[in-house]
Amino acid sequence: MRVRLMILPWLSLALVVAATPAIAQTSSSPLDLRVGKLEKEMKAVQRTVFPQGTPVQPDLSATPTAITPAGTPASAPLSDLATRVDALEKSLAAVTGSGEQNSYRIKQLEEALTKVQSHLAALEGSPPPTTAPVSTTDAAPLPATTGSSAAMLPSKRKPAAALAPKPAPTAPKSVATNADSGRKAAVAAVEMPATGDAIENDYTYGFRLYVAKFYPEAQAKLKEFTTKYPPANKRWSYAQNLLGRAYFDEGKPALASVAFYDNYQKAPRGERAADSLTWLGQSLIKLKKNSDACKVFDELNDVYAANITPDQKSRAAKGRADAKCAG
Questions:
Q1: Burial code of 74-97, b = ≥16 C-beta within 10 A, e = fewer?
Q2: How confident is the model over 240-259, as pLDDT tens digits?
Q3: HSE (CB half, 13 Å, CA atoms) of 286?
């Protein structure tokens, strides 16, 4: 009887030890499933984030264990593990959601970039404008003039640099290129003279284009003439003044003012130098620079008073009245 009583405690202890692994296995089975799921999802995330590279390895180093004071009850290991798994699941869900949002934003950016590239391609394929815009501020202020007409001649003194308008945008050299077939035919109908004098032929053809009101074509021909021949040529002053008239009549006073001033500056003794000053004043009035126009008319009177023609005198008088010049 006494032996049987001594065996009972050992039997009870063996039963408890045998039951412990079963309890632990039963309790850890759901955690194993959750951990396995986390590992699969993490691998999927790594394949997405690092499609061609090596995934960043997690830091699996052991975390220093804090020293627990004696007498502190130990927490259940399974409870701590469950808490950590919950935190991992939440973090993984946040990472997955952020990745989806980033993918959507990248897709939107790619669509927007495609639209911008299409728009740029359309703009690059469109033809450029045929005429340059003209600003009403292209002409520079003109200084007051003093002294006798002989002293004012550019042949004996340098013309005032401030008298020159600022260069305006250069007009197209060949505007007839984009003209319709009807205009081309009309321009072709303007007869090219054949007098045997090449200089006279070139100028006369530009003059005929101007008279026919083919202003862009006349401008191209007259600019070609003034570039080809020097200012000392007998027809250079005529061609340069007519170039200014072609701009003025087409409604481009800024370009006209540059052409007129160039004629006065480069060929002051030319046949049309005084005429260019009268038209320079008219161009400045069109540009609403009345005070500068008055200075030009004063220059005309100082330099060419003895040789001014009635037509030039009449034009200058009208210009002074329009600009409300003093005197």
A1: eeeeeeeebeebeeeeeebeeeee
A2: 999 999 999 999 999 999 99
A3: 20
